[in-house]
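INFO batch 0412 | record 1 of 1 | parsing
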Amino acid sequence: MSLERLHHPNPVKDRLTPIRSVRDWYRRKAAAFQLESLAKNARPNLSKESHLESLILRLEEKIEQFKSDYQAGYFSNYLQKINS
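INFO prediction complete | emitting tokens
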């Protein structure tokens, strides 16, 4: 769901200004309805404890893998480039 731009910030007033005001009011109401619908129907991704736990475990595995790669010297060439 994408939200459209609410209005064009053009301060020029002409005979179409009242029509634009109504159009902008309608667009604000439509955006409010879309936001309300999204807030009511969206499911949060990290609120499930099992999903959060699986992401934490994956992060810890990647950290351990990085540590072992660092100790094995896989990043020594990169560090030499940075220091020189």
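INFO post-check: The mean pLDDT is 82.
INFO record closed
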